[in-house]
Amino acid sequence: MTCRIAVFGTGYLGATHAACMAELGHEVLGVDVDPAKLSKLHAGEVPFYEPGLEEVLKRNIENGRLRFSSSYEEAAQFADVHFIGVGTPQKKGEFAADLTYVDAVIETLAPLLTTPAVIFGKSTVPVGTAERLGRRARQLAPAGDQVEVAWNPEFLREGFAVKDTLHPDRLVLGVDQGRPGRAEEVARSVYSQLLDEGIPFLVTDLATSELVKTAANAFLATKISFINAMAEVCEAAGADVTVLADAIGHDVRIGRRFLNAGIGFGGGCLPKDIRAFMARAGEIGADEALTFLREVDNINMRRRTRMVELVREVVGGSLIGSRIAVLGAAFKPDSDDVRDSPALNIAGQIQLQGASVSVFDPKAIENSRRIFPTLNYASSVNEACSGADAVLVLTEWDQFKQLKPSDLDSIVRNTIIIDGRNCLDRDLWVDAGWEFTAVGVASERRASTLP
Ligand code: UDX
Fold this sequence. Notes:
The protein is α/β, with parallel strands linked by helices. The chain folds into 2 domains: about 5-200, NAD(P)-binding Rossmann-like Domain (Rossmann fold, 3-Layer(aba) Sandwich), CATH 3.40.50.720; about 220-450, 3-Layer(aba) Sandwich (Rossmann fold), CATH 3.40.50.720.
């Protein structure tokens, strides 16, 4: 059955959801308050880099199933299924999530709802938000109790957003169990194609559905910080964290995925989500349960300072006057997102300690320049590495993984490379005479003599 859907917010989450819902055959209106984003989307352009999204967007604009607007009135008249896909960033100077944008959707939309409607929240929110928004929506809407708020958390990864939306691992729906309504039935029609494919569909209460998302991200962050803590131990012990990860990863209870040691996690989700989770646990009297996440955060942030120290060591003890090439600025490959990017953070710290830093990234230069205008940005790997005292690989783009020593031999000043993501072939570089350092592995320079 075709549904008439409005999606509020056209960022990574909203734009992808809107385009993918149209791809499933629904009629969709994407709504945003940012005219610049809307005019790009109108023209079939994705305002950020996400492989495969532009084709889905264009196809569905052309077949008439997908439109964009800034008008909440139009959305309220057009659709009876609404999705909230706006951002919930970290509050400035606090751990908690800023719910301004989520609240604004309800405050603006609900007074316009004169007929029955279901509002599905997809944004990551602190537990208890959905229930509060439901109360507020019923209070504001002329249709009153016929307006339902349910929660349908989104688990998409940047770089795989289309696949993760059209073929997710699972669908989770939280419904207000005190007021059984149409939310589950509506969700079943929206996602009927996915359900027919056998994708697991878990229906639960609102609080559990909100927690599923934060718990998943807390687990992933913990897994990365666990292996990064092991990297610290391996460096001290003269062991190799990559082999360790491979070996423990064979245990199916542990699993090898998300066990790559490096410069740690960043991006618009994991860092702020674990902090918001800790803040909310404090508010509801469960803070002790999540104190370990503070350590997860600390281990993660320590990776960045550790990397800066490593660079200082390899260039001879001081960064002043050295030339450093940084390959990678995005928080992960196949993305142009630089929010809380470890790569860019490290580049900035190195420059502040007196080095001249030249950064190259295949997609993220424009965004990097906006938030870090004082770094030098190169337009190619060769330009970034020209005259470099050390080359740092900080985001594991395929282009960097495929680099060969002979590509850089005659360009750099010193043949020194640091692999911040354990993504390069050590033997290839060492055999070509390069000094090669990876994280979580004792370097020749720091040959271990254990007490
Ligand atoms: C994450 C969650 O995976 C997703 O389910 C949620 O909806 C949003 O947050 P995303 O931010 O797109 O998705 O990136 P993800 O692939 O999870 O990577 C997060 C960070 O962890 C990146 O900086 C990445 O480089 C780092 N990472 C990932 C590691 O350092 N090691 C790993 O083994 C995996």
